[in-house]
Design goal:
By secondary structure, the chain is α+β, with helices and mostly antiparallel strands. It is built from 15 helices and 8 strands. It has 2 domains: 187 residues, no CATH class; 80 residues, no CATH class. The protein has a 6-stranded mixed beta sheet, with helices on both faces. Strand 4 and strand 5 form a beta hairpin. Helix 1 packs across helix 2, helix 3 packs across helix 14 and helix 8 crosses helix 12.
């Protein structure tokens, strides 16, 4: 798995490939649901390694940013049918923007209760705000989808860094919280310049930010740090949506999650408030990249750290078993298994032997 990474690729997958992926996906997903249940499938899709392996097994066997968008499209075609009680909304670009409308339509057809619907919508909106504003790692979100049932949900979204030509994928599952929300982040590399307000180490910073907003002192504190020596090194944003902060002050949000969900609270506002927290109140936020899977850096030589082979082996074993039991031809099984083991260079040779 140490060869997996997500370079930005443009264009569309050919029709013949999409048709084949949909054909293979249906029996595979039906088997997983029948054998292990809906929650297990959602749990698996929240795992970046499983998600990547599923994309490869179904035929999208080069590792690129397209593996996320193409697999999402395949899952929408397969899951949003009468064969499943699992639904998926969102996608790339305009489809991502339309996610909430899709959730409402799909929920009505699936007779999902209003309380559950509100939680699903909040999970979709909050996860998007987290990875676009609360976590600032240099990647801009352009893909967002949520996979959900009546009781649970998974969010899969992807950001791009056009300057370095790479993408990064974020996974969330069943947790509506701004602290340590990710079930996994897949990336080729770790970034050095990061503002991570989702870290537990940023808990005090989040509290300070909320206090500054609710006390109405954000304007004073912002102007105060402009004259500080540290300002020249702090990258304070020039433009901040003051109307959004004024709205937040009037609303008096009770927690950080409700605060960042206010329309207009974005990257600039949160960066300014985080710097106020650090420079004025001496409350630091985490600057460590929270990526949990980095395939280019975690290699078999163990530098700078070893690959989590136990996690990879579990995914491969599960996927191999599912493929072997799926109701597809032996020829297709062989092809899927070959793709599965090709995605793990260190295991490919021993498998062939």
């Amino acid at each position: 798995m140490d060869s997996i990474y997500l370079p930005l690729h443009h264009g569309k997958a050919p029709h013949w490939l999409l048709s084949r992926m949909k054909k293979l996906a249906k029996p595979l997903l039906l088997l997983i649901v029948d054998e292990f249940g809906e929650d297990e499938l959602l749990k698996r899709l929240s795992d970046p390694v499983f998600f990547q392996c599923l994309s490869n097994v179904l035929g999208f066997d080069w590792n690129s940013s397209g593996s996320t968008t193409v697999l999402t499209g395949v899952l929408k075609s397969v899951l949003n049918t009468e064969d499943f009680d699992i639904r998926i909304a969102g996608g790339k670009g305009k489809n991502a923007v339309n996610t909430v409308n899709e959730i409402e339509i799909l929920s009505e057809k699936s007779e999902i209760r209003e309380k559950s619907l509100k939680e699903i919508v909040k999970a979709s909106r909050l996860s998007a705000k987290i990875d676009s504003a609360a976590l600032q790692d240099g990647y801009s979100l352009y893909h967002h989808c949520i996979i959900f049932t009546k009781k649970n949900w998974v969010v899969v979204q992807q950001g791009m860094n056009e300057d370095i030509g790479l993408a990064r994928r974020y996974h969330h599952m069943g947790k509506i919280s701004a602290e340590e929300p990710h079930s996994g982040i897949i990336s080729q590399r770790f970034e050095n310049s990061v503002m991570d307000l989702t870290s537990r180490k940023s808990r005090d910073a989040r509290k300070t930010i909320l206090d500054v907003v609710n006390d109405g002192t954000y304007r004073f504190d912002f102007s105060k740090i402009l004259s500080m020596k540290a300002y020249r090194e702090s990258m304070i944003p020039v433009r901040v949506d003051w109307k959004a902060l004024e709205k937040a002050y009037n609303l008096q949000p009770e927690n950080f999650e409700d605060f960042i969900l206010i329309r207009g609270i974005g990257k600039s506002a949160l960066r300014a408030l985080a710097l106020i927290s650090e420079l004025v109140y001496d409350t630091e936020y985490s600057k460590k990249d929270p990526a949990k899977f980095s395939f280019a850096l975690g290699g078999k030589d163990g530098v700078p750290f070893p690959v989590d082979r136990e996690a990879y082996d579990e995914v491969i074993s599960f996927m191999e078993s599912a493929v072997r039991q799926a109701e597809i031809s032996d020829f297709e099984k062989r092809g899927m298994l070959e793709k599965l083991f090709r995605s793990i260079p260190s295991r490919s040779k021993s498998h062939q032997e």
